[in-house]
Write a structure and sequence with these properties.
Order of helices and strands: HEHEEHHHHHEEEHEHH
Shape: elongated
Strand order of the largest sheet: 4-5-6-7
Number of strands: 7
Structural class: alpha/beta
Strand content: 5-15%
Helix content: 40-55%
Distance between the termini: 73 Å
Number of helices: 10
């Protein structure tokens, strides 16, 4: 400590000065990282990582922190060790369901399922609050990113089959509507060799009779009405049906 190689957040704890700041804060204040803060640290899809950190505290705690933070009171679904700094994944998902809008919560749940941090069978064995039960009822392990979850949930009213992350022509497609309408979502990694491979795969799909619509992150996140109109018109023209 004198040499600055470690710091003491509070009595009984030592930390690397370069440690994740929210972990150090949890040790300092005797709280537990949870909700979207812990979900982000686990590499899960989180709609928005800005804002104050989220911590869990005991149900009857009167604790107030000297920093800007979002506190979650209540009994945990999975008991916490007194020295635990981070919530188990089930507790994280329970808080996400209560804290985030349904669509955003579902995207985080499906990200956890896709990364095999939990399974549907295991989740169904817990007693959830109403918000979490609603999320669980719609959750699948197939969405590779939150945008795919958003697309599926926002288009379910079409009452057409929507299949996520299925293999066609040797590659996975993000979403298949009906028999022939392929929706591909381009993220930041769709550049260079990846972009070239995407163009080649699109050509293969077209030669096989599929219709391909490519969408960007910005379109789904910030211009959904235009995206929905595009898909509706494609369905109206029967592009989702095998000819």
């Amino acid at each position: 400590m004198r040499r600055g190689l470690v710091v003491r957040p509070r009595r009984g704890w030592l930390a690397d000065p370069a440690a994740e700041r929210t972990l150090t804060a949890a040790a300092r204040f005797g709280v537990v990282l949870t909700c979207r803060t812990q979900a982000s640290l686990l590499g899960l899809w989180v709609h928005d990582v800005s804002g104050p950190p989220h911590f869990a505290v005991p149900p009857h705690s009167t604790r107030r922190l000297p920093i800007d933070a979002r506190l979650h009171w209540g009994n945990p679904l999975v008991p916490r060790d007194p020295d635990q700094l981070v919530d188990p994944i089930e507790n994280v998902l329970a808080h996400i369901a209560e804290c985030e809008p349904f669509e955003q919560a579902l995207a985080t749940w499906e990200s956890a399922l896709n990364k095999s941090l939990v399974t549907l069978d295991a989740l169904q064995n817990h007693v959830w609050k109403p918000a979490a039960r609603a999320v669980l009822a719609h959750a699948t392990p197939f969405a590779d990113a939150g945008l795919e979850t958003y697309l599926r949930i926002r288009l379910r009213w079409l009452r057409e089959p929507l299949r996520i992350q299925i293999w066609i022509a040797g590659h996975r497609v993000d979403t298949l509507i009906g028999d022939r309408l392929v929706i591909q979502i381009d993220g930041a990694h769709h550049v260079g060799p990846q972009r070239t491979e995407d163009i080649r795969h699109d050509a293969d799909l077209r030669l096989m009779g599929y219709h391909v619509i490519r969408l960007s992150y910005a379109q789904i996140m910030f211009d959904w009405p235009t995206v929905q109109d595009l898909v509706m018109r494609a369905v109206a023209q029967g592009l989702h049906r095998a000819r």
